């Protein structure tokens, strides 16, 4: 971790302590925040958010620099060209040749228009993205793949909280509808006295179809940028396509209706807690504790058990205390790691509804029970004619995906606001 990141984190800790001081003072005096204190709180809360953004940007920059250094090292000294005139494949001792979509020279050749007008970028072997953590090397950065497909998916995950939360990824070669079993009720057991029959209690299953909704984006690149071999063009296109596709799919992964679009998690999540009356849509520390324990222990113990809410809701959650006066919000002490609420990571997504009457403003549970299906990788197509008059080359990226919650027994629950 660089010295700059360390200073930013120290400043973040100072701001958090100042916010706690203001909240503690009002609690001790049994009053609400004064107008002056509320103004100070809002300013510091905004600074805390900006510090989070700067820390994340700095960590991402450090990781990109590290990836670039490793790429140059492989290019200049770590690799050896394999024999044969037709392969063009780069092999390194102890490693397998790159699979389809993994050869950067082949991809670069396509981007320059030297081979065809389309390029299918497919996963290089089975990749489990549920354990992917962006950030510093020690926090998981070393596990982030550097291939083009994997970089694109990493950027897609980066902008979608539900993907960060540990959704289960299904990669398929084609896009036909697949039926995934969903659990609607668990089997039960009871004491059986001697000589009596054992009651039958089967778990209840259903099926959820996962299709392949098509998402597309177009990116334009100057001819000069294409011809400059010193530019990380693959990284640029992976970032732009990943973020665009991730924002579009991420919105449906949260709030999709399932009609003409994927079925979002809010559609099938179970009510955990209804808010207190007297505050329209607002929640208390007790509400969050109740929501936490409305999810049963096996789901809470999962590594994919997390909170998801929007940024504005986080501002309210930072003020919450338990009945002993202790904050239930815990700022992260590790670079690149999320803050904790009742010991579980908090992720933010702008697609989660704001706090309001009947709004499902907080999600909590085991997000590995949410399945995301990617069909056939990512298809890249290029056109030299679309923007011929500006000498821009246009790339089109297409992704087919679907999603659904497959455990309806209460793996993921939500908080709903009440009336004033």
Order of helices and strands: HHEEHEHHEEEEHHHEHHEHEEEEEEE
Integer average pLDDT = 77
CATH architecture of the domain at 104-181 and 206-263 and 371-405: 2-Layer Sandwich
Structural class: alpha+beta
Instruction: Report the total helices.
Output: 11
Please summarize the sheet with the most strands: 7 strands, mixed
Helix content: 25-40%
Give the overall silhouette.
globular
How much strand?
Answer: 15-25%
Features:
420 residues; alpha+beta; Major capsid protein gp5 fold; 7-stranded mixed β-sheet; 5-stranded mixed β-sheet; Phage capsid family protein; Phage_capsid-like_C; Phage_capsid
Q: How is this fold's topology laid out?
A:
Elements: H1 3-28, H2 35-78, E1 80-81, E2 90-91, H3 104-111, E3 118-121, H4 148-158, H5 161-164, E4 168-172, E5 178-185, E6 204-210, E7 213-222, H6 223-227, H7 233-255, H8 265-268, E8 270-274, H9 285-294, H10 297-300, E9 305-309, H11 311-317, E10 329-330, E11 340-341, E12 344-348, E13 360-366, E14 370-387, E15 392-405, E16 412-416
Parallel strand pairs: 4-14, 8-16, 9-12
Antiparallel strand pairs: 1-2, 3-14, 5-6, 7-15, 9-13, 10-11, 11-12, 13-16, 14-15
């Amino acid at each position: 971790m660089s010295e700059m990141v360390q200073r930013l984190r120290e400043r973040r800790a100072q701001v958090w302590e100042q916010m706690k001081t203001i909240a503690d003072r009002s609690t001790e005096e049994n009053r609400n925040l004064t107008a002056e204190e509320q103004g100070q709180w809002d300013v510091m809360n905004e600074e805390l958010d900006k510090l989070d953004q700067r820390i994340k940007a700095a960590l991402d920059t450090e990781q990109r620099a590290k990836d670039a250094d490793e790429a140059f090292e492989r290019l200049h000294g770590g690799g050896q060209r394999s024999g044969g005139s037709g392969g063009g494949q780069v092999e390194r001792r102890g490693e397998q040749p790159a699979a389809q979509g993994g050869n950067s020279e082949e991809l670069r050749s396509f981007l320059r228009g030297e081979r065809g007008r389309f390029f299918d970028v497919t996963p290089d072997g089975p990749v489990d993205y549920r354990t992917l953590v962006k950030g510093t090397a020690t926090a998981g950065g070393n596990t982030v793949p550097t291939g083009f497909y994997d970089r694109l998916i990493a950027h897609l995950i980066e902008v979608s909280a539900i993907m960060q939360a540990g959704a289960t990824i299904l990669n398929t070669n084609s896009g036909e509808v697949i039926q995934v079993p969903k659990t609607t009720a668990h089997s039960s057991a009871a004491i059986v006295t001697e000589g009596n029959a054992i009651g039958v209690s089967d778990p209840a299953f259903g099926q959820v179809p996962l299709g392949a909704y098509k998402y597309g984006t177009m990116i334009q690149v100057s001819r000069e940028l294409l011809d400059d071999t010193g530019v990380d063009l693959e990284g640029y296109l992976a970032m732009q396509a990943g973020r665009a596709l991730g924002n579009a799919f991420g919105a449906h992964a949260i709030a999709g209706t399932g009609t003409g679009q994927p079925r979002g998690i809010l559609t099938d999540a179970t009510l955990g807690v209804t808010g207190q009356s007297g505050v329209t849509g607002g929640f208390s520390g007790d509400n969050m504790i109740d929501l936490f324990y409305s999810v049963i222990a096996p789901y809470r113990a999962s590594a994919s058990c997390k909170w998801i809410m929007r940024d504005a809701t986080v501002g309210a959650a930072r003020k919450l205390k338990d009945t002993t006066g202790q904050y239930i919000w815990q700022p992260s002490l590790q670079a690149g790691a999320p803050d904790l609420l009742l010991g579980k990571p908090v992720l933010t997504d702008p697609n989660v509804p704001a706090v309001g009457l009947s709004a499902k403003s907080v999600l909590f549970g085991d997000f590995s029970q949410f399945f995301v299906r990617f069909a056939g990788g990512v298809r890249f197509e290029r056109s030299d004619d679309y923007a011929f008059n500006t000498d821009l080359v246009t790339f089109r990226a297409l992704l087919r995906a679907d999603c659904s919650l497959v455990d309806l027994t209460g793996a993921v629950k939500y908080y709903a606001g009440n009336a004033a």
